[in-house]
Amino acid sequence: MGLIKTSPQRRKTAYHSRLRAMEYRVSAPEVLREPLVVPEKLLMGPGPSNAHPRVLEAMSRPILGHLHPETLKIMDDIKAGMRYLFQTNNAATFCLSASGHGGMEATLCNLLEDGDVVLIGHTGHWGDRAADMASRYGADVHMVRATSGSSLTLAEIRKALETHRPSVLFLTQGDSSTGVQQGLEGVGALCRANDCLLIVDTVASLGGTPFHMDRWEIDACYTGSQKVLGAPPGITPISFNHRAVERYQRRQTKVKVYYWDMFLVGDYWGCFGRPRIYHHTISSTLLYGLREAIAIACEESIPSLISRHQDCAKRLYDGLLAMGFELYAQERDRLATVTTIRVPTGVDWLQVSQHAMKTFLVEISGGLGPTAGQVFRIGLMGQNATSERVDRVLQVFRESVKAVKPDFVFRKSTSKM
Amino acid sequence: MGLIKTSPQRRKTAYHSRLRAMEYRVSAPEVLREPLVVPEKLLMGPGPSNAHPRVLEAMSRPILGHLHPETLKIMDDIKAGMRYLFQTNNAATFCLSASGHGGMEATLCNLLEDGDVVLIGHTGHWGDRAADMASRYGADVHMVRATSGSSLTLAEIRKALETHRPSVLFLTQGDSSTGVQQGLEGVGALCRANDCLLIVDTVASLGGTPFHMDRWEIDACYTGSQKVLGAPPGITPISFNHRAVERYQRRQTKVKVYYWDMFLVGDYWGCFGRPRIYHHTISSTLLYGLREAIAIACEESIPSLISRHQDCAKRLYDGLLAMGFELYAQERDRLATVTTIRVPTGVDWLQVSQHAMKTFLVEISGGLGPTAGQVFRIGLMGQNATSERVDRVLQVFRESVKAVKPDFVFRKSTSKM
């Protein structure tokens, strides 16, 4: 350490070093001497998607402190970009330092207190997850279930609101487990008429399908960084409107989780016009990646981003149907970003998925929750929503099914693929 | 998107594009057209510290899926490395996808239920924070306070345990707000004798001072990634021993926070011998950085890592005292990683800190919580714990104090610095 030591000191240090070495009962693992291995894969599952090279480059920039002016500036840029992507003017638009699940928990625990009634619209796995979380927070949880592969109609939602009289309705715009897209127009007005707040999960849908937080009168929403945005996972954009903020202000009890507390995190993000306060040490690295990803999305613009995803989804559906596969989600309810394909009788989905990965380094996923074992899931998100990648994943899917089940009968018309 | 469109379709698309464009009430912010700016700074505050170039390089690797075998392998490597750094054989050693606060909340909410008595050892800001969190989870919170600038004695801890009969004792090994190090030897045995679990926060201390989870009979602990390890912030190593796991298993109620639930996250990390299950989408990027940082620490070995930090701290204390400054923490309780310096009368700490940053791009921090306005804080962590950087920060500190208060009287003996 550059300290000049006299001989007696050196002897003493050597003695202490031996003593200290004996104190260590757990050895350093040999495995960490091997280099880090990260293969380059084509991520055509329901997320994460491949990040743009600009995003990856940004993430190798030096670490900054959590209250440095440059960090606060990047946070402000992200807030502005997310207001555009959510289509909202909400002051309380910021990010949680957590995965998308953090968004789900933060909306629920900020807006619910013990005994509050919450209604969960169930279109797949995420409804189950939200119900689990809300019940842990002490809410009285009710569920309104859509038919398998379908979304809820406005009439079904109205009836459930009138039956259960919830203070909060939770919906998932794009359920990545079923590939079902929930319509949102008109739901906000229904909620206001029933003195209910509307929370919407846009993790898998934002950027791939229209979303208008303010116009649709949505009170709280969140998205995933690693889906259409193609940013690294681990940071979650979230937004609360004035009705949600007022509900928070009327709470009788503190929000149970310090880490999710809207006012504490929001003050760190400078959302409420008060001085920025320290709440937690944010990951500057994830901020760099997210800012870059949002900048790329803003450069492209929402209309182009959405058309691109919708066009690619159409190309994928057509390709799959032409090969003879059946889609899981009803046509009118199909989510552009995640396509669910029924596993044909006699086909082992896991072998197909493994073949695609092993042979082509292409990710094609299986089902999740209610669709486990029943569907394949192909994601088209961000950088991966191009006609070239649609064609690539169709080809890999076809080859993998053929490899696993050589006698599988494809429709003749598509034998050229 | 490469789709060939007939003229009527193109016209229709153009019409819809115009319509869609009109629907967007919030515009894309101009500020995102400017490039991302990340200056290179010397981070000599209480964390984050500067990351090693190998860590930064790792973070620009491609994104992997959260259940890919390569990702699971990296997670296993991290578990092995953290068992070495915590000096534990605990199966339940894993990471949370959150900042260090997540560790605090996860230990408390996994081990506490409504009405449980918790005793918080208060040596600074982190005791207040833990008390806030525990009370939100419904615990009956008691505090035992150390004298300012000191740690708690074993006698004080014994007396508080016997008075309050807590089921959980929470201590901070290195309180970064006061620069105080809490002694831990003997506390575990006291806790066992009183049927109490011992949680220790090692966020600011691990790697800079000895820590022996198993030998010291600590039941739960966590650390920060961005301190001595010099990994990116946003991912938090945590460990629970068999007593903590048994306490979890005897719970009458579910852990309130899904995201912190030991068994759900632990199963994702493969800690309990059950199949790996999906819990959340982990940030592969943060895993790359953390694995690399842990590998670097293992290569150096714990004894060397600790001597380096202790030697540098000694050099810093000597330099500061020689200049005439007074240290805040008592000599026997000084934390090697964060040094607290009393702000001399008539010196504006904020101006000094701002001068250091503006003129030298060197971070020197002010106080936090109970020490706000009273101290400067200088951190020596990971890559920054070298004699060269100690000398650099001493020089910058001296120059900044002189610039802000030209008539400040430095001790003569150090005028050469």
Tell me what you see in this structure.
The structure is a homodimer of 417-residue chains. With 417 residues, the first copy, chain A, is α/β, with parallel strands linked by helices. Chain A has two domains: 53-299, 3-Layer(aba) Sandwich (Aspartate Aminotransferase, domain 2); 301-404, Alpha-Beta Complex (Aspartate Aminotransferase, domain 1). Chain A contains 13 helices and 14 strands. In chain A, the strands form four sheets. Chain A has a seven-stranded mixed sheet, sandwiched between helices. Chain A has a three-stranded antiparallel sheet with strand order 11-14-13, covered by helices on one side. Chain A has a two-stranded parallel sheet with strand order 1-12. In chain A, strand 6 and strand 7 (180-181) form a beta hairpin. In chain A, helix 3 runs parallel beside helix 10 (284-300) and helix 11 runs parallel beside helix 13 (387-404). The first copy, chain A, is globular and about 65 Å long. At the A-B interface, helix 1, helix 2, helix 3, helix 4 and helix 5 of A face helix 1, helix 2, helix 3, helix 4 and helix 5 of B.
